[in-house]
Amino acid sequence: MNRSFTNRFLPPALLVVLLTPALTGCNSRPGAAPTPPPPVVKVATVIERDVPISSEWVGTLVGYVDAQIRARVAGHLVNQNYREGSFVKAGDVLFEVDPRPFVTGVDQAHAKVRQAESQLSQARAQISASQAQIEQAVASVSQDEAQVKRAEATQRQTELDVARYTPLAQRGSVSQQELDNSVQSNLANLAAVAAARAAVLNAQAKVSQARAALEKAHADVETQQANVAAARAALADAQLSLGYTRVLSPIDGIAGLRRANIGDFVGPTDSTPLTNVSKVDPIYAEFPISEQRALAVFRRWSANPNAPRGVALELLLADGSVHSQPGRADVLDRQVDASTGTVLARGTFPNPGNVLRPGQYAKVRAVVEVKKNALLIPQRAVQDVQGVHQIAAVKADDTVDVRPVEVGARVGPLWIVSNGVKAGERIIVEGGDRVRPGQKVRPEASADAAPAAPR
What we know:
By secondary structure, the chain is α+β, with helices and mostly antiparallel strands. It has four domains: 41-51 and 373-449, conserved putative lor/sdh protein from methanococcus maripaludis s2 fold; 71-95 and 246-273, CATH 2.40.50.100; 101-244, Helix Hairpins, CATH 1.10.287.620; 280-369, Elongation Factor Tu (Ef-tu), domain 3, CATH 2.40.30. Helices cover 39% and strands 32% of the residues. The chain has five helices and 20 strands. The chain has helices at 2-9, 12-27, 100-171, 176-244, 291-303, and strands at residues 40-45, 47-69, 75-80, 87-88, 93-97, 246-248, 253-255, 265-266, 275-290, 311-316, 327-337, 342-349, 361-378, 383-385, 388-394, 400-404, 406-411, 414-419, 426-430, 442-445. The strands form three sheets. Strands 1, 14, 15, 16, 19 and 20 form a six-stranded mixed beta sheet that branches. The chain is rod-shaped.
């Protein structure tokens, strides 16, 4: 009723005069809210330094030498002489194949050697006999030739007698009987000369036969020498086969589980080895690198052939630890894998105590470049807003400046920023989600204000 009265009967100017003190008194009441203070934010300083950039690859450990142990002779496995998973030395006996058939083979080979040597001795004796026959035949030829000369001399004498007695017998100076005797003697001496010459030819034939026998004896000796050599080679092969019944480790290394049981028939044609022995100190780590990275390496090697080719490596094991011994990458495969577009690289790591084993998976890390004067900020200072990386910086007047940035590689807890910040700027690392651009803040140093130097 009062409001209706006032609205109806009081003039508007008077109403303003009456209400002004009341409104003024309301604004000056002690319970009005004060202006809030600037929010507190944690800030870190953008630092500038040279940063080594590392890359990681998933690799597989491979034995420095992986030897497949196979039986080199066929037979039944009769013994295992090593403890599976233990360290063995080169020359240690790992398995034994039944040696009895091979012992028999060695004995037979020995007998054949002795038989061949006996036949060789006989052939050599035949040479001596043939030489003696030749000497005897040559002597006989000499005797027969002398006999021919004597017979010819006697025949010439009787021939002269016949020539002398013939005119005498015609004159009657000698009897016809004497002439006839001279003629018969001459004929007999002619026959003796012919017989002596025949004896010479027979002796010469014997010499030829003896010489042929000597040549045959020499050929027999050569044949028997070849037989002896063959028999000795067969003996050596039999002894080698007997030695192969003891399956030895060719290297120092870790011997794996056996793949064959005692009593199994094994041989060189088996597809599965008896076991494997791996030399694991040092040990290889094989890992694929991209074709682009391989091209960069090949070009660097081509530009400077004398440059060191080894790259320092770290090995990150499956439990998250880092292998205590650094390695070096020194080999790239000859070809690119067409299915993956990668090149297989290999690094070598010392492995004291044989802690690392073939087949393990591990990450291989290497410094691939050093980025000069890189700008670093903590990773938690960067926010991803609809695919855009942005940070909140605190300007000199302690107001907030929100801007996008371009980030690069991560280095530990830090992030390399390629564009959007300057060295020495203050970047909000905590509380950035509670401020807006241009807002006044109260910055406080964070633990990230002076981050440790990256690895």
